[in-house]
């Protein structure tokens, strides 16, 4: 029997690492984009935090400082909006023909998705740290200490993983920048304003409060807010982080499925 030669297959971690390196180099070449993305949280924290600071005195609000209340919401909003644009890299690769070369590589498709996602999460971590710093400089105070900061960053990372993966899947399915923008806006804006990011649940209309209870943005905000304040209920934190982890895993699986469907369609 004649042995059939097979192309060598790179290990999963090696392939994911190389993809991560490639996307990281792209990010460094366009590092101005990360800086520009921080303009929005600066506006939210420094401008809105000052304009609406009297909201903190409303009975039932639960916090005397609106800026301290607002920062965890702005943190989650920042990773949410950044995550919604994660799929643009795939569309650029498709339009430029790079994707055709990527698909010839004898590597796991999940490694290709994971490497790109890891880069997005690294960028998200930098943005999250900067938002917390901006919030502190703007007057917010985090009584939860290091543990609270860690909880907020974990929640932000899980939320970012969910929306980065979802954005990548939509990009691979639609292959259109306009479609990605439209779908992202249709999801991101309601997810933001139907959450506890900017307003205490007790002051929301009853139907908004009900929706926010099942909104993953609210889960992340609540974990971050209670952690930064040092008032976390560990049972609630574990439950909400568990839900966010499950949602991130499902979104990642969706992205892998979309990648394979894209390849089969060629």
UniProtKB/TrEMBL annotation:
Location in the cell: Cell membrane; Membrane
Superkingdom, taxonomy of origin: Bacteria
Residue intervals of the ABC transmembrane type-2 domain: 32-262
GO biological process, one term: response to antibiotic
Keywords: Antibiotic resistance, Cell membrane, Membrane, Transmembrane, Transmembrane helix, Transport
Record keyword Chloroplast present: no
Record carries keyword Oxidoreductase: no
GO terms for cellular component: ATP-binding cassette (ABC) transporter complex
Molecular function via GO: ABC-type transporter activity
Pfam family, one: ABC2_membrane
Membrane-related topology note: Multi-pass membrane protein
Segments crossing the lipid bilayer: 31-52, 64-86, 121-140, 146-166, 178-200, 237-259
PANTHER family assigned: NODULATION PROTEIN J
Family from the record: Belongs to the ABC-2 integral membrane protein family.
Protein name: Transport permease protein
Originating organism: Antrihabitans stalactiti
């Amino acid at each position: 029997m004649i042995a059939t030669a097979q192309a060598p297959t790179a290990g999963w971690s090696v392939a994911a690492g190389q993809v991560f390196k490639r996307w990281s180099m792209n990010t460094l070449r366009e590092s101005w984009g990360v800086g520009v993305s921080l303009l929005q949280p600066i506006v939210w924290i420094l401008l809105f935090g000052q304009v609406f600071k009297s909201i903190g005195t409303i009975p039932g609000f639960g916090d005397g400082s609106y800026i301290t209340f607002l920062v965890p919401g702005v943190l989650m909003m920042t990773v949410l909006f950044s995550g919604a644009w994660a799929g643009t890299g795939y569309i650029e690769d498709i339009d430029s023909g790079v994707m055709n070369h990527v698909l010839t590589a004898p590597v796991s498709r999940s490694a290709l998705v994971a490497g790109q996602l890891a880069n997005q999460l690294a960028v998200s971590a930098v943005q999250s740290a900067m938002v917390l710093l901006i919030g502190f400089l703007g007057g917010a105070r985090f009584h939860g200490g290091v543990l609270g900061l860690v909880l907020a960053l974990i929640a932000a990372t899980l939320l970012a993983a969910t929306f980065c993966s979802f954005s990548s899947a939509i990009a691979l399915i639609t292959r259109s920048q306009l479609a990605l923008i439209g779908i992202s806006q249709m999801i991101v804006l309601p997810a933001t304003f139907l959450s506890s990011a900017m307003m205490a649940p007790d002051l929301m209309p009853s139907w908004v409060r009900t929706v926010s209870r099942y909104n993953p943005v609210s889960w992340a905000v609540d974990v971050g807010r209670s952690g930064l304040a040092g008032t976390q209920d560990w049972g609630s934190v574990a439950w909400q982080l568990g839900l966010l982890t499950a949602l991130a895993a499902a979104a990642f699986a969706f992205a892998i499925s979309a990648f394979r469907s894209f390849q089969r369609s060629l």
